[in-house]
Structure formats: structure tokens, C-alpha cells
Design brief:
Distance between the termini of chain B: 80 Å
CATH superfamily of chain B: Glutaredoxin
Order of helices and strands of chain B: HHEEEHHEHEEEH
Number of helices of chain A: 5
CATH architecture of chain B: 3-Layer(aba) Sandwich
Radius of gyration of chain A: 26 Å
Strand content of chain A: over 45%
Oligomer: heterodimer
Number of helices of chain B: 6
Largest sheet of chain B: 7 strands, mixed
Strand order of the largest sheet of chain B: 2-1-5-4-3-6-7
CATH class of chain B: Alpha Beta
Largest interface: A-B, 106 and 84 residues
Structural class of chain A: mainly beta
Number of domains of chain B: 1
Radius of gyration of chain B: 23 Å
Chain lengths: 630, 224
């Protein structure tokens, strides 16, 4: 619900007092835990302003206080929880200010003495755009982000409300928290698991049904996802009760939902013996369907997965934890079918994933391989035109086989790909480990839109990724030095021509160094330096010349009290500011509570975790956080 | 007696809660009187079709005018020969000449935009798609709003773009990014289908998704 500051104050204080009282006065059989995370962020000019760039000004000069209160109650086999999220914006950019500033830029840095017809027209265009851009940003909300009740015993587990779930390795279903991307998607509905034994075999059967429930407020942009009655028929009225809604303003008199909750139903059967585990996994995603009314939009996105009426995912998995004494194997094969209403016809997609570990002490080898054809993540039905910050919300995560921090699988790289990665660790002594990472991929969907996954050379990108490094530990494990140097080479089989006439097969190349050094200084002190320095070159879709990008951060920690850190970031890509400086301080009140302060600048751009990516705007300002547990 | 840590913890929690829900006011900058006068004096252009206008699927699109060419190829991509192109050029309430308008926005830095125009071995170019369907009342308006470095596109940039991809359908330069009202610059290419008999937005697609886009086009062109 939209709330006034005063009302939200009362609600939050009342809720907090109530839960804290419950915790203090708890009877023996009850346990209660309350934690809060409160963040006050004041953003200044993040230096990304562009001529006629409404969005580049809408992310400047606003402040947000974000509060999260999480309560957990437990008694015996029963548990319940509620997470309330709230955001309040003390200040935010107005459409007038954005349009005036753009007019100023258009006129060489200052407003004209006399306004022409062209000025008036330009101002009105930008004013309308700014009004539309801010219509679903900077709204005060308090809403029940997550809640659940759970009964759990040795043989049976049932949970109503919000739950996370992953089937197999995430090819079929994976809904979970992703803090680094400010994402937390769950399903809201019912999940139950039964477990039983028959001889040497153990069985587990899981069934679930629910609607997708991503976080509705993106604190980095102040944008919220809104649902309304036009997209929440039937039982979705219940699951969406109290959630943020679309709100109009003078620029958007007929606001529309930016999210139509997807309905998912799934089942998993697992059987395991000592050296063998088998799994059968299936999920069906069904999109909301319009009832034919004029104000109803039922498919928001343009991507082939987002435009699908329904998607069926199914897979079988085999896990062999002990093949002989030194080897473990995991394999999963999945199929995917989609149904569209508008004439799109796509062949059934499939995905094969394999991982193996071979322990040849002192050498350890990890191998991951994949072959995906027309296999798409289950994208949430989000109107990316209204809420682009939520573009990464999805309910499955096919493994990338790359490091989780990899951000160079561009476009639809992982939907039509064959390849894999080997990690070879060699223990030179108890304290010294050297490693080699070697990856090779062929993808047919990185530099061309190739929804049908046509595997002709014309669409092909050949990718090599190689890294070597070492890890040294000392001081009984309290000091650790990890460093690696690597390169990525990504070339097309065809000649590509850029808009400025440059012809090349180079898609992307990079050479990088990553390091993380922790040095124990004694008496609780340790010094840590982390960094990532990259020389990047992306001829098509990037700057014309190679550029350097990276960061280094140095932190002094006094255990268990806290940490003080300074950081320097840089980016020679001419599209972004070139230097960023920041400092941060963290004070641990106890093992579960802390205060932290960040002051300064941080570069924006694409940030990826396990193949899910989103673009963050640069940050410039102050962020104060208190995370407390009672 | 609470410890210093406990005091900090208690007081800070309260402060943060108050900060979360405290008082504040939104900024509203005043529009200069001179600009208001200019807006009033500029009047409003008459639009051939009726509103109310909006920017979402199902809304009626407002009038927009740009500098461009009806046929860049015929004009030899000469930026000096640009003239005004308006959406009203495509408005056809009878549906005799034009039934569906495909608006495609691009930027010089957008690799997928170039692929959409150029096509691949397994994918026709935008021009070829247009030629295949133009007899059915299908029209295309391409626009370029930024250059390679995210600066507003110039007529010279439009010349380079259209010559590179040998564009022969209507094309315009949109330096003030008027069409940003329909999709943010970060989700390019952006494709929008307009029913030219009513100027109603029937489809909006962010990103390069040819299967979805051209199925929607063909469905829109199929007689009911």
C-alpha cells in the first residue's frame, strides 16, 4: 500500500515494538528472533548525465531510507516468519528539474535568456519523458515481502507462504536470494516434501505450487514493481494482497501493472542409495492470461521466454558421489517446451550438464561441461519497458560452468552453447596450491539473436578462457594470498562490421589480474587487499579502442570489532567516468549486529552472479546501514 | 547499566526507524516564466487522430515529427536532403495504403540494432522483411537516437548508418530521443507496432527478438 511517512512510522514502530516484546516475554517453548536491516542512502550526481538522457538524471540527487524487519517464530516442529520491507524517499528528482537540466545541457550549459519554440518543444518532450520515468519510482511503500508458516518433521515438511526451491542444478527450477544483485525471488504458495526409506534406498518426494514473488522495490533506482487486479485473478488476489501497486501521476493517468505474477507448479522425486542418487524434476510455468478487457496486457516482454504463454521444464539427474575412491560424477539432462499464442513456433529445447571431480592427490580436477539448445531461463513476466531494473528476475538458472563473477557472457550466450571448463588444482605443499582454469565454448547466440538456436558458423562465437594462479596460506590459515592472471578470447566465425565501418572477427578479448591478499598482523589485526584489473576490448557494442577497468580495495580489520577500508576504481571506457574513490567503515556490535558506513563513488555497469546479470547505475553519495538482531 | 555498544545499538535502531519514516518533502522546481510563455505561445500542434494519448500497449500514440528521409537510398543518404517525417504520414484510417507501422529505434553503440538492420545468413535484413510485406500495408520507420559514444545522433550519423545498412525505407534522426517515451535507451533495439488505422500501439518489444517480433507482425497483418 502507498503510505504517508507518518503512517509508515507508526506501522514500523508498532511492528517492531510488538516483535521485540514478543521476544523478551517469550515462554520457554517459544523462541522468537527479530532482525532489522535499515539503510539510509543519499545519492548525489553520479556523473553519468547524457544529453537528452532522462534516466541519467533520474538517478541523481535522491535519498532513500530502506528498512527490512524480519521476524521468526519457532515452537517445536512449527515455524513462522514475516519480512516487512519499507522504503521512504525523503528527496527525489522532479520531472521539472530533470527537463530543465536537460534543456540547460541542450543550450550549452545554461538556460537561454529568451526561450524559443524549439526550447519549449524540447522541454515538453523531456518533461513528459521524465514524468513517465519517475511515475513508478520514489514511491513510499511498506509491504509484506516474505511470509511463511512451516511444519517440519523427520519424514514430512510442509510450508505455506514464501519458499525457495531448487531442483537439480537449477536447470529446471531455482528461486533464491541473490544479495549481490539485490534480488530475492521466492515462490508464494505451498511446498511439501515427504521422505521415507525402503531397504538401502531413501526416497524424497517434493511438490510445490505458487506464484513468483520477486522483491518489489529496487533500492538502487527507487523503482517498484506494481501489480493490480487486472493481472491477479483468482487465488493471486490472495498472494498479492498488500503488495505494491501501479500508481498514476499527472503524466501517467492510466498506470498499468509492471508485473503479472507467474504461476508455477512443480514436482521432484529423488531416490538415493549409498553410491547412487537419482532425480526426476519437472516444472510448469503458466503466464497470466488476459480476460479480453481493454486495459489488460498479458505478456510484457519481448524475449522468447517472456513472451511464452507457458513453459514446461523437465529433467533427469544422476549423481554418483563415489565412482571408485577418487571420482564423483553428476549428470543432468533437461528438456524445455514453450507455447506461444502469437504464432511463434519453437522446437523443444534441451540441455545436458555434466560435472565431475577427480581427486588424484595432490592433483584435483573439476570438470563442468554443458550443451544447451534453445534452453532458456524461466523469465518472470515483467514489463521491462516500465521496470528495466528487474530484467534479471527468473525462476531457473542453467549452470554457466563459469566463475560466478563472470560478466562476459553477452546477450543470450548461455541459451545455445556447447563447452565446458576444467579446473586443475595442484597442492605443492600443505600451504601452497597452484591452479589452472581452462574453458572453451562455442556459442551461437552471443552476437546474433538466434532464438531457434541455428548452429551455423555464421552465428558462431568461439570462446577460450584461461587462467593460472596460486593460493598460499600461512599463520595457521589466518593469512592467505590468492592471485590469478587470465585471459578471454571471443571471436566470431564471420566478419562483423561496426557502424563506423570497422570490419573484424573480434567480439571480445580481455586480459586480467585478480587478487585477494589477507595478511595477519597479530593482536586481532589483519590487512586485506583485493583487486581486479582488466584490459578489455569489445569492438562491436563497446568503445572502439581497448580500455582498462578495475578496482582495488584495502581494508584493515580488527577482529571482532570491525573494518575500515578505502577503495579506488577506474574505468577508461569513455562512456563512463574514469575515477571513483570510496571509503567504508564497519563496526560490529556483536557477532550478528553491525553498523556500516560507505562514503564515496562506485562504478556502475553490468554486474553478474552465476549468469544472472543486471546493469547498475554508478553510485556517488553516502550509505549508512544498521543490521541488528534481537 | 547498558554498555556503550548496547546504547549505540538501541539508539541507532530508533534513529534509523525515524529516518525511515520521518518527515520530508519532495522537490518541485519551478518552471521559469519565460519558458512557460514560450510553451503557451508555441501552441499545440493539431493531430489527425484523437486521443487521449499514451505510451503503453493499447494506448493511442501521440504525433511525433523528425528530420529524415522517406527513402534514404534514393536520396543517396545525403543529410542535406532530409525533410520532416511525422507519424501522421503513416496514418491511414481507411487502411487502404497502410495498416501496420513498425517503428524501430536504434543507437550507434547498439550491436544488436545493426544486426537487425543487416540480417545474417539465417535472418533477412530489415529492408528485406519490409519489402516482403509492404504490399500488405506494412510500413517501417527506423530512427537513430545516439551515436557510438552515446551522444545525440546527428544527420551525419544517420547518413552513415543508412548507407552502411543500405536502408530504403523511411528513416529519421531522433537526437532528443522523443521515442524514449516508449522505451528506455538501455533496452535497444526497441520495436513497436502501430495500427495505422487508429494509431493504437499494439506491440512493444525491447531487445532484438526476431521470432517474437515477426510473428507479431505477421499476425497483425493477417486479416481478421
Amino acid at each position: 500500500m502507498p503510505v504517508s511517512p507518518l503512517r509508515s512510522c507508526r506501522v514500523l514502530l508498532a511492528v517492531t515494538s510488538c516483535f521485540v516484546s514478543a521476544s523478551a516475554g517469550a515462554q520457554d517453548e517459544w523462541s522468537a528472533e527479530v532482525s532489522t536491516s535499515s539503510t539510509l542512502t543519499v545519492r548525489g550526481d553520479n556523473r553519468n548525465t547524457r544529453p537528452s538522457g532522462v534516466a541519467s538524471l533520474a538517478d541523481d540527487d535522491f535519498s532513500v531510507a530502506h528498512n527490512r524487519i524480519d521476524t521468526q517464530l519457532a515452537r517445536g516442529e512449527w515455524r513462522a516468519g514475516l519480512q516487512l520491507d519499507g522504503a521512504w524517499y525523503p528527496s527525489s528528482p522532479s520531472p521539472e528539474r530533470i527537463a530543465l537540466e536537460l534543456l540547460q545541457i541542450e543550450n550549452g550549459g545554461q538556460l537561454p535568456a529568451n526561450y524559443s519554440d524549439a526550447d519549449a518543444t524540447y522541454f515538453l518532450q523531456q518533461y513528459q519523458r521524465a514524468g513517465d520515468e519517475t511515475s513508478n519510482r520514489f514511491r513510499n511503500w511498506v509491504y509484506p515481502a516474505k511470509y511463511y508458516a512451516r511444519y517440519s518433521s523427520r519424514h514430512f515438511d510442509v510450508r505455506a507462504g514464501d519458499f525457495y526451491a531448487q531442483f537439480g542444478r537449477g536447470l529446471v527450477l531455482s528461486v533464491r536470494k541473490r544479495d549481490a544483485l539485490a534480488g530475492d525471488t521466492s515462490l508464494r504458495g505451498l511446498k511439501s516434501t515427504g521422505r521415507f526409506r525402503a531397504g538401502d534406498w531413501r526416497f524424497a518426494l517434493t511438490g510445490l505450487a505458487g506464484s513468483g514473488n520477486p522483491l518489489r522495490i529496487d533500492t538502487a533506482s527507487g523503482r517498484h514493481l506494481g501489480t493490480d487486479s487486472s493481472v491477479t485473478p483468482g487465488w493471486l488476489t490472495l498472494t498479492e494482497a498488500g503488495m505494491p501497486q501501479p500508481v498514476g501521476n499527472e503524466f501517467v493517468p492510466r498506470p498499468q501493472a509492471s508485473y503479472a505474477p507467474d504461476q508455477l507448479i512443480g514436482a521432484q522425486a529423488e531416490a538415493g542409495a549409498k553410491n547412487l542418487r537419482l532425480g526426476l524434476h519437472g516444472v510448469r510455468l503458466v503466464r497470466f492470461r488476459c480476460d479480453g478487457s481493454d486495459d489488460c496486457t498479458d505478456s510484457f516482454g519481448g524475449s522468447i521466454a517472456r513472451a511464452a504463454r507457458s513453459i514446461n521444464n523437465g529433467s533427469v539427474s544422476v549423481d554418483l558421489p563415489h565412482v571408485g575412491e577418487r571420482t564423483s560424477l553428476y549428470g543432468e539432462f533437461a528438456v524445455q517446451s514453450m507455447a506461444h499464442d502469437n504464432g511463434v513456433s519453437l522446437e523443444t529445447g534441451h540441455a545436458a550438464y555434466l560435472s565431475a571431480n577427480i581427486d588424484l592427490d595432490p592433483v584435483n580436477i573439476d570438470i563442468e561441461a554443458k550443451s544447451y539448445r534453445r534452453f532458456y531461463p524461466l523469465r518472470a513476466n515483467i514489463d521491462t519497458g516500465q521496470a528495466r531494473e528487474f530484467i534479471g528476475v527468473q525462476y531457473s538458472t542453467p549452470p554457466t560452468t563459469e566463475p560466478v563473477w563472470n560478466d562476459t557472457q553477452f546477450e543470450s550466450f548461455n541459451t545455445c552453447v556447447t563447452g565446458g571448463r576444467a579446473r586443475i588444482d595442484v597442492s605443492l605443499s600443505r600451504k601452497v596450491l597452484s591452479f589452472l582454469r581452462l574453458a572453451r565454448y562455442n556459442t551461437w547466440a552471443e552476437t546474433v539473436a538466434n532464438e531457434s538456436c541455428i548452429t551455423v558458423d555464421e552465428n558462431l562465437n568461439r570462446v577460450w578462457d584461461i587462467a593460472v594462479g596460486s593460493e598460499v596460506t600461512s599463520d595457521k590459515g589466518r593469512s592467505r594470498q590468492v592471485g590469478r592472471i587470465g585471459t578471454r578470447l571471443d571471436y566470431t566465425d564471420r566478419q562483423m562490421e561496426t557502424a563506423d565501418g570497422y570490419v573484424s572477427q573480434l567480439s571480445y578479448t580481455e586480459v586480467y589480474v585478480r587478487y585477494d591478499f589477507v595478511r595477519w598482523l597479530g593482536r586481532g589485526f589483519s590487512l586485506q587487499t583485493q583487486g581486479w584489473h582488466r584490459r578489455r576490448h569489445q569492438r562491436l557494442g563497446g568503445p572502439a579502442e581497448p580500455w582498462m577497468q578495475g578496482f582495488t580495495q584495502t581494508a584493515l580489520t580488527l577482529a571482532p570489532y570491525g573494518t575500515v577500508a578505502i577503495g579506488i576504481e577506474y574505468d577508461q571506457n569513455p562512456q563512463f567516468p574514469d575515477r571513483y574513490y570510496n571509503a567504508s567503515l564497519r563496526y560490529n556490535l556483536d557477532s550478528a549486529s553491525s553498523l556500516s558506513l560507505f562514503v564515496g563513488q562506485r562504478q556502475g555497469g553490468l554486474r553478474c552472479i552465476a549468469g544472472i546479470c543486471r546493469v547498475f547505475p554508478p553510485f556517488e553519495g553516502v550509505r549508512l546501514n544498521a543490521s541488528l538482531r534481537f | 547499566m547498558p554498555s556503550f555498544r548496547q546504547l549505540v545499538r538501541q539508539r541507532f535502531a530508533l534513529l534509523m526507524l525515524l529516518a525511515t519514516v520521518g518527515c520530508g518533502s519532495k522537490e518541485h522546481d519551478d518552471i521559469p516564466d519565460g519558458l512557460l510563455s514560450a510553451i503557451a505561445n508555441a501552441g499545440s500542434a493539431t493531430t489527425a487522430w484523437e486521443g487521449p494519448y499514451g505510451n503503453r500497449t493499447g494506448d493511442v500514440i501521440a504525433e511525433h515529427c523528425f528530420d529524415g528521409w522517406q527513402d534514404p537510398s534514393a536520396a543517396q543518404f545525403d543529410s542535406e536532403s532530409m525533410s520532416e517525417i511525422c507519424l501522421s504520414d503513416f496514418y491511414d484510417p481507411t487502411g487502404n495504403t497502410s495498416r501496420i507501422l513498425h517503428i524501430s529505434t536504434s543507437a550507434g553503440w547498439c550491436a544488436s540494432c545493426g544486426t537487425e538492420y543487416q540480417g545474417t545468413a539465417s535472418r533477412p535484413s530489415l529492408s528485406a522483411r519490409w519489402q516482403q510485406r509492404r504490399a500488405q500495408g506494412f510500413a517501417v520507420l527506423g530512427t537513430l537516437f545516439q551515436d557510438n559514444n552515446e551522444n545525440p545522433a546527428t544527420p551525419a550519423d544517420a547518413s552513415i548508418w543508412t548507407e552502411l545498412y543500405n536502408v530504403d525505407f523511411p528513416f529519421a534522426v531522433d537526437p532528443s530521443f522523443q521515442l524514449g517515451l516508449y522505451a528506455d535507451e538501455s533496452v535497444q533495439p526497441f520495436n513497436m507496432l502501430i495500427d495505422t488505422t487508429t494509431m493504437t500501439i499494439i506491440t512493444q518489444l525491447e531487445g532484438d527478438n526476431p521470432e517474437v517480433l515477426w510473428s507479431a507482425v505477421d499476425q497483425a497483418l493477417t486479416p481478421n
